[in-house]
Amino acid sequence: MQRVLTIVFVGLVVAACGDSTDSTGQAPGGAAGQNSEQVAPESGPLDSSVTAEVDPATTDPGVTSPPVTEPVVTEPPVTEPVATEPVVTEPPVTDPTPVPVATDRVVRFFAGSGSPDFPWTPLGYWDGANWQPAQFFDDGTPTGPDSTITNVAASTLDLPDGPEAVIDGLVLGVEEPYCVGNEVGPLIALPGEVPDTPVSLGYDVVAVTADWPLQPRPVRQAGLQAPVYSEIGGSFLDSEVDTAFNGTVVQAVRVDLDGNDVDEVLVTYERQEAGDFGGAGDFSTVYVRYPSSDGTVVDELLASYVSAEPVDFPTPGRFTIAAVADLNGDGVMEVMLRNQFWESGGMEVFALVDGRLTSVGGGGCGL
């Protein structure tokens, strides 16, 4: 028993000095680089002062290293930017209002009284590009090609329904002489007679070979009592006759001739004191007012007749407005003035040329 304890003690001493080596580089009691293994006795109690040797290669004596904890790095979520295209709001597609273009076909126009028994007078024609005046061959037939438009429409300021009335669905009838020179014109039957008015002079209605609206914009009567109309009418005659400011406005018509949203005004200003016989100081005028969007107005005389002395024929010279209508389909309206002198009468056509009403045709009958 004593022997065993001695061996154990020596083992402890050796363990205490286990990191020393002999001159051969081997640790005492074993191969080089190896710890000596101590075998506990198979039986018998151990001294309480003896502690079993712990292999330092398997246990780190007395040193407790804290666990290495890698910091948790929380990366923010990668969010790809959402590509947002700018919102482009296209304006609504609106078909532009078509600008009327004058027809490239031949258009014939005539003046008449509305009587079913009296042929209509040719006033001229639109040749597809230009206005042409009424002319006749030696046999009395009108010059120029015939119109291929079969529909005929008619208009006058004297219709009972007012200045906007248009009669459609008419046709050209047979041609017959209408004047002393054997000039011929077509018969055109209206559904009713045109009533006589204070300004009716015989040639009261214009008829057109047309398949478009004769009045693309309203034609309206204006107030006859506006003092400015008399003042303007008198100013045109002031240098010719002493009675220039003693006349009466017998017609005033408002109409946007060219579609620029500004109404022109047509005015008939006259003095007819002598009745059927012209008297000194009587006169007849038709003028037009051209307002501008800036508020300025240009007044222009279209027709005028002054009777300076009494005459001995049955009718004085006189002009009045017969009709306003689009004669060639371009959306611009022309103005027709009727005239009467002694034993003659007729109608003259005025078209807008460079913004001003200009005579482009006419016709009638007289001695």
What does this structure look like?
- With 367 residues, the protein is mainly β.
- Helix content is 7%, strand content 31%.
- It has helices at 2-16, 227-237; strands at 107-112, 121-126, 131-133, 152-155, 166-170, 175-177, 184-186, 205-209, 219-221, 248-255, 264-271, 282-291, 297-307, 318-325, 334-341, 344-353, 356-366.
- A six-stranded antiparallel sheet has the order 3-2-1-8-4-5, with no helix packed on it. A five-stranded antiparallel sheet has the order 9-10-11-12-13, with helices on one face.
- A hairpin with an 8-residue loop joins strand 1 and strand 2.
- It is globular.
- The N and C termini lie far apart (179 Å).
- The relative contact order is 0.13.
- Mean pLDDT is 79; it is low at 1-63.
Q: Detail the poorly predicted runs.
A: 1-63
Q: Looking across the biggest beta sheet, what order are the strands in?
A: 3-2-1-8-4-5
The helix fraction, in percent, is: under 10%
Q: What is the overall pLDDT average? A: 79
N-end to C-end Cα span: 179 Å
Output the helix-strand order.
HEEEEEEEEEHEEEEEEEE
Shape annotation = globular
Count of individual helical segments: 2
Largest sheet: 6 strands, antiparallel
Number-wise, the strands total 17
